[in-house]
Design goal:
four-stranded antiparallel β-sheet; seven-stranded mixed β-sheet; 42% helix; 2 domains; Aspartate Aminotransferase, domain 2; Aspartate Aminotransferase, domain 1; binds pyridoxal-5'-phosphate; alpha/beta
Length: 413
């Protein structure tokens, strides 16, 4: 099915504005995606008509908001093909989901000398939580290296993997490089030595089809704001058996069965991990975001984004041909999503970002919360273009025109 880009763009009010006197070109989708009108409307509707605290109450508004809230859980279950909706826990986002696993599963099951494997291309949110739990338990953090093109060195992964490995925590798709990691192979190999696998799906969730049962991952973390939904909502998927074996993350209302001063008992999953009043409105609006994606279809989105990446790469190639290869690409893996990092010789990435911003073009610059990855490439940071369902080749043309001029000016310095 061909994508109807105009009708998609028309659903995003934010895109139809000028920034610094130029039409906005939003190329910062890996940081956060924009929200379609139906997501914005869902927030307004909830607070205008349905607002009530969920669960336990006897009145109509509470039962309505509970139904809508739990409908999103069912939508998530379908979206990732979990066996049960109870395996989907609402959190604040990927960062909180990973911390939850590190602090509950990690503190319970890791001991002195155990090993946790991560990769060189992890976001800080899949590094620091493991460092914290390793410090607390005496477990050891080990890192799978990557090649110059930004792919995992699988032979090194094989060598690092052993009976000591208890957890492989790996980014499915790199936010800085766009690399799609061979997670199915990683999972099968990790399971063969008895290790569990957590996938950071922050970037994968909006670009790739997700089937947790087919993958057989133990944990998957995703985030609403990368999926055209509101900020402050994410999901931790975990296999029932593992979630049941883990202690609660936070104590409070909703996560208990019975509270006594001597001892409390805990609720069943998912509620055991959902202490306190959750982010009800945003969870409900997240459901609308999922409906938006399902309405287009992941394969249609992926095909469009892959065409955009191809178009961008060819365009950068042309700019380089006439400018002595002034643009160096960072992240050239064979399997990639529509994210491209680069540096312009002789220019600080922040200056490139500021100059593009003056033309209404929003890109991200800096270390992208992946400092160890930047160190691997000997860089302080990069400029990152990340393309999404509502971006067009016409926008890429404008970007190429301006980056071409910048590069020319820099070359002439
Ligand atoms: N992991 C990756 C790969 C990301 O790109 C991000 C966000 O940029 C995160 C983790 C953190 O996600 P969240 O903002 O949902 O906490």
């Amino acid at each position: 099915m061909a994508i109807d880009i105009e009708s998609i763009r028309n659903q995003f009010p934010i895109l139809h504005q000028d920034v610094n006197g130029m039409p906005l070109i939003y190329f910062d989708n890996a940081a956060t995606t924009q929200k379609p009108q139906r997501v914005i409307d869902a927030l307004v509707k909830y607070y205008s008509l349905d607002n009530a605290n969920i669960h336990r109450a006897a009145h109509t508004l509470a039962s309505r908001s509970t139904t809508y809230f739990e409908n999103t859980r069912k939508a998530i279950q379908t979206f990732i093909n979990a066996a049960e909706s109870e395996e989907c826990i609402f959190t604040k986002g990927v960062t909180e989901s990973i911390n939850l696993v590190a602090q509950t599963w990690g503190r319970t099951f890791l001991k002195q000398g155990d090993e946790v494997l991560i990769t060189t291309m992890e976001h800080h949110s899949n590094i620091v939580p493991w460092q914290l739990v390793c410090e607390a338990t005496g477990a050891i953090l080990k890192v799978i290296p990557i090649t110059d093109s930004g792919e995992l060195v699988m032979s090194d992964f094989d060598a690092l993997l052993s009976e000591r490995t208890k957890m492989v925590a790996c980014v499915w798709v790199s936010n800085a490089l766009g690399t799609i990691n061979p997670v199915k192979e990683l999972i099968a190999k990790a399971h063969a030595v008895g290790a569990k696998v957590l996938l950071d799906g922050a970037q994968a969730c909006s670009h790739l089809e997700i089937d947790v049962q087919e993958l057989d991952c133990d944990f998957l973390t995703i985030s609403s704001h990368k999926l055209y939904g509101p900020t402050g909502v994410g999901v931790l998927y975990g296999k029932r058996q593992l979630l049941e074996a883990m202690p609660p993350y936070q104590g409070g209302g909703e996560m208990i069965k019975e509270v006594r001063f001597e001892k409390s008992t805990y609720n069943d999953i998912p509620y055991k991990f959902e202490a306190g009043t959750p982010n009800i409105a945003d969870v409900i609006a997240f459901g609308e975001a999922l409906a938006f994606i399902n309405g287009i279809g992941k394969t249609v989105i992926a095909a469009h984004e892959s065409n955009l990446l191809q178009y961008l790469l060819e365009g950068i190639g042309h700019v380089n041909e006439s400018n002595n290869n002034m643009i160096s690409l960072v992240g050239t893996a064979a399997a990639k999503i529509s994210v491209q990092s680069f540096v312009v010789k002789g220019m600080h990435s922040f200056d490139v970002g500021m100059m593009l911003d003056a033309k209404g073009i929003a890109v991200r610059t800096g270390h992208h919360c992946t400092q160890p990855l930047m160190n691997r490439f000997g860089l302080e940071g990069t400029v990152r273009v990340s393309l999404s369902v509502y971006n067009t080749t016409a926008e890429i043309d404008v970007f190429l025109e301006h980056i071409g001029k910048l590069v020319k000016r820099s070359a002439g310095k």
